[in-house]
Amino acid sequence: MISRYYLKCPGCAEAFDARLGVEPTRGTRFYLPCPHCGLPIRGSMSGTELEDHRIAIECEVLSDSAPESPDGRVVTINPFVPSRYDADTFTPMGSFPTMTLLQALGDHAFAEFQSERHSALEAGRDQWPTVRMLFQYYLQGNTAMFVRIAQQQLGLAWEPSTSHERTTVAYQAMGAVTTVITGTTGTTSANVIGRFSRKHFAAMKRHKDHLATFRRRGQSSAALERDVFTELNRFVEHHESWEMGLLGRFFGPGGNNAFDDLVLYRDEFSMVRDLYQHGFELACKCLWPLVAAQNTVKRGSPDDFGAAHPDRVPENKRPRNLDKFDKLPNAFKIAYVAQVPGWEPFESLLNNRRRNTIGHATAHHDLQTGRVVSDESPSGMTYLEFLGEVLGVFEALSTLAQVLRASRVASSPDFGPFE
User: Fold this and answer.
1) What 8-state DSSP symbol labels residue 68?
2) Which of 291, 272, 282 has its CA nearest to residue 213?
3) Which of 92, 362, 364, 397 shows a CA-CA span of 20 to 30 A to 309?
4) b/e per residue, 33-42, with b = 16+ CB within 10 A?
5) Which of 123, 179, 138 has the alpha carbon at shortest distance from 399?
6) Which string of DSSP letters, residue by residue, matches 150-206?
7) CA atoms of 186 and 348, how far apart (whole Å)
């Protein structure tokens, strides 16, 4: 749906037509550029049903029916679909939001993107609330309500009567939804989890020290488990603000120029950056099970790092055990994981260089260029690239939650006292 307005710029005081794409939303902050002077004019919209939709624009609204501007100045934006910053009504590509993605991606990729995007939004809206409730009962230790939700709302056909069974059910339910939200294009979660599971089970069969380590560390990971769930819940609650990060995974090498020219007219950088930063830090706290499994399989002990150290880690920083690994800077933790075949994608999902750029104190969303910039990185990145980084952190955190699950299952009291 398109709403039309005749606006007066609060800066240059010139009038212009604004064509604004409207969709149901719990709350969206956006901006539009004055076509005369380029001033970013902020606005907001809310309303999950079109009949109760509300739009506020921080300038004088001369008319809400938008009579044609005498000099033909028109700006067309949709906060839910990227477009070109300098576009007029219909040309060039990116000017008319409903056609932008089809023009940029082509028929086949556009259809795949729309399918994944729709499934992700639906999973967050319709399925996550039940999973959230289930996981909250799991964290509370409310067995009766956990079983009721699992059976009546998730269709579980059996009763999880033990602690480790409830842990497994809770994490499987959470993983089913976060996997859909992450999408299938360009993802590596299944491969990472599969490789970890094989290494972990092989290590448990052969080395008692491995299981003892996972039991001990799993017992002390209750607080981390709660923090990870809380942060994943925050990601899903604000999914609408970063879901367009999925778009970058559908552009091939030849489509980068078109992708770089697109702007998403959202004014939510501070909130989304908080998600990114908190998610990044938590994900790095969950890397230890991967390293422990690799150490045990290769050298017989989760604490034995041997001589397999990344080149970038200085000799005086190389850990002698998992406790020392926990104290490493995040960049070094990621390097240890990324050197294992099959786990290299963590270097991209948790890109420490990008983390420093986005997390810099001066980082901000320049609404006149549509880029995230900082004193450290004046050229920065497009807002869409930033949202792609946010999606990467969500994928990493949701993947590592399933890895952390192994230690929480191992620490279950069902298996008797710790040795």
Assistant:
1) P
2) 291
3) 397
4) bbbbeebbbe
5) 179
6) HHHTT---S---SHHHHHHHHHHHHHHHHHHHH-STT--HHHHHHHHHHHHHHHHHH
7) 11
Tens digit of each residue's pLDDT (9 = 90 or more) over 191-247? 999 999 999 999 999 999 999 999 999 999 999 999 999 999 999 999 999 999 999
| Size of the chain, expressed as the number of residues it contains | 419
pLDDT for 334-349, tens place per residue?
A: 999 999 999 999 999 9
The tens digit of pLDDT for each residue in 47-70 reads: 988 778 899 999 999 988 766 666
pTM of the model: 0.94
| Encoded tokens for 361 | 């104190």
Positive or negative, the CA dihedral 17, 21, 24, 30 is: negative
pLDDT of residue 93 exceeding 70, the answer is no
203-207 own/partner pairs: CB under 8 Å, 24+ apart: 203/293, 203/296, 203/297, 203/302, 206/296, 206/300, 207/296, 207/300, 207/301
Look up residue 324 and give its two tokens: 């020392």
Q: Give the pLDDT confidence of 388-405 residue by residue, as tens digits.
A: 999 999 999 999 999 999
DSSP H helices in 49-184: 97-105, 107-122, 128-140, 143-152, 163-182
